[in-house]
Sequence to fold (350 residues):
Amino acid sequence: MKNIARLMLIVIMLILLAACGKKSNVLYVFNWSDYINPDLVKQFEEAYDCEVRESYFESNENMLTKIESSRQAYDIIVPSGDHVTILVQKGLLEPLDKSKLTNYGNLDPQLLLKAQSFDPENKFSVPYFWGITGLMYNKKHVPQSLIEQKSWSILGDDYFSGKQKVTMLEDAREVIGAALIFAGHDLNDASEAALADAEKILDIWDKNITQYDSESYKNEVADGTSWLAQAYNGDALQQMAQNSDLDFFLPVEGSSLWMDNMVILKSSQNKELAYKFIDFLLEAENAKLNAEYTQYPTPNKAAYDHLDETQKMNELIYPSPEYLEKCTMIQFLGEKIRGVDALFEKIRLN
Ligand code: SPD
Fold:
C-alpha cells in the first residue's frame, strides 16, 4: 500500500515538474511551411517569455477545412487574399485594433491599397508577403532548348511524355489560372466559356502531370524525383539557394499575383500576444530578416528599403513593372468558385 502511495506521489511530482517547465503563455500560429525565419520565432519567444506553437498548411482550402473542423484554437493564421474575404464572410476574423500595431506604418501604402480588393479598409488583415507563381526546373534533366520560350506550354511538351516528371501545385486557382492565362483569358474569369477553354489546355498538360502538390515538390525537383514543377517564387528561390542545378522562370504569357496576410481569429484565446507577434514581424529589421529568409517579396516598405541590392534587383523576387503588367491578382470569386473547384477536381481525378 505504502509503495503505491509513494509511486503516486512520484507520478504527481513528475506531472507538476513537467507543467512547470511548460510556458503558460502560448501563441498558436497556423502558417504555410517554410514561410517564417525560425530565428525570429525564437527571438519573439525570448522577448515575450512565451512559446509559439506553429503548425502548417499547404493550401488555403486545407487551412479553411482545418479552421472549421478542428477544435484547436489558433490565434494567427496566414490566408491568401481571396480567403481573407471568405473568412470575413464566415465571421471568423477579429477586426484589428491598429493602435496595437505600432509598426503598421512600415507597410507600403500602395500594397495596402491593393489589399483593399479583398479586405476593404484593411480592417481584418495585415499583408505578410506577396508573390508570383512560375515554373521551377532541374537543369540536369530539362534541356535549355525547352526553356528558351519561357512559356506555360512546356507543361504539355512531348519531351515529358510518359516520364512522370512534372508536377503542378495543389491549388485550384493556380492550376486553372495558369491554363486560363495560357488560353488568353483573365485569371479570374470563371465563365463557362473560359473554363471550357482552360479544360482543353489542362487535358493536354495533365497527361504529363504526375501529381498536384504544394509541399514535396520543393525537394523533389532538387533530388530529381521530378524535373519541372509549377512553383511559388519564394519556394523556388529557397531551393535554388541550396542547389545550383535548379532554376525558375516566370512565363511570358503572365502569371498569378497573390498576397498572404496575417489575421487574428475571433476565437483566439490570446489576442494580446497575437498583436505583439504581428507587430514584431512588422518591425523593419525583423521584416527584412524574414524577407531574406523566405525569399518572398515583402510588402514592408521600411524593410524593402534596407534590403540588399542583389535581393531588390532579383526579378524573380521583384519582377519588372512590365512583367507585373502581365499578371493578375487572384480575386475572391464568390459562388463562381464552384466552377473552378469542380474543374480542378475533374482534372485531378481523371
Ligand atoms: N511556402 C510558402 C508558400 C506560400 C504561398 N502562398 C500563396 C498561395 C497563393 N495561391
Q: What stands out?
A: Residues 15-22 have pLDDT under 50 and may be disordered. Residues 25-130+258-317 form a domain with the D-Maltodextrin-Binding Protein; domain 2 fold (CATH 3.40.190.10). The longest helix spans residues 2-21.
